[in-house]
Amino acid sequence: MKTFAVIPARNEARTIRQVAEGALASADQVIVVDDGSDDGTSAALQELPVRIIRNEQSGGKAAALARGFAVALEENADWVVTLDGDGQHDPADIPRLLDAARHYPDHLVLGARLRQRHRQPGIRKFANRFADFWISWASGQRVPDSQTGYRAYPRALLEAVQPSTARRHGFVFETAMLIDGARRGFPCVAVAIDSVYHADARPSYFKPGKDVWEIFWFVFWRILLSALYLPGLLRMLVRSARLHQPEIREDRVDTV
Q: Which of 93, 111, 104 is nearest to 1 (CA)?
């Protein structure tokens, strides 16, 4: 199973080297998409065996992910793991996502932030729960963390679903992967990971007001154009989220 890690990064000079080094321990190849950084993000990766793709101007997360996906597919990747460059995602969890991938080869694997949820800022927690409900309805499945960027994508899903990469759709891109992927036969399975929020982290590029609004309208139209997609709503309400728990120590598991 040939695995690539794709890390979109914009002004992540403080953290990107540690993230890339961690990803190298589990992935066959690591691609860092430097999305118009002006703080030396690419320079921080010197002498590491990673492939750096640099956008001279920032095109947004969607375009960065799509560019990384295209390179991974050209290099015959079977699975592509995505994680953020700001240190929010622990690369040590990659083997756990890949274990789920082996058990569920036709699924989108989500690194779901189900542990230590008390660490999540209140507005982010509300925005995530709001998005989870609507995206679960539109995709016809219970999605425990629809906004996580820590994911493992099977090659077939990346070939079948190619959402808009317009800058204003930066965070809609991953939502489309969930909804359109599920409707094309690639449901999600979740692996519980920690909610990590560093006190000195840079401000998030995710804007709970603007970006949740964009996501909501995208999801709303997906539901409306499917005549309210009542079968999807029913499945979301009566079926539990599919969780894969590879070697989870009981002292680290929070109640979901």
A: 104
Let me know: does 130 contact 214? Beta carbons within 8 Å: no
Under 8 Å between Cβ of 30 and 24:
yes
Residue 198 belongs to what domain range?
3-252
Instruction: Tell me the residue type at 3.
Output: T
How far apart are alpha carbons 157 and 138 in whole angstroms?
17
At 132, list the tokens.
Answer: 């989870």
Mean residue pLDDT of the chain comes to 90
> What is the C-alpha separation between 40 and 13, in angstroms, rounded?
6
Q: Which amino acid is at 41?
A: T
pLDDT at 121: 62
Share of the chain above pLDDT 70, in %: 87
Q: Rounded to two decimals, what is the model's pTM?
A: 0.90
Q: Which amino acid is at 253?
A: V
CATH number assigned to the domain comprising residue 58: 3.90.550.10
Distance of CA 22 to the CA centre of its chain: 17
Beta strands (DSSP E) in 18-133 are 29-35, 51-55, 79-82, 108-115
Q: 44 with 18: CB under 8 angstroms?
A: no
Give the strand order in the sheet containing 51-55: 51-55, 29-35, 3-9, 79-82, 151-154, 108-115, 188-194
- H helix runs in 11-121, sequence order: 16-24, 61-74, 94-103
For the record, the structure tokens of 139 come out as: 């995709």
Our count of domains for the chain comes to 1
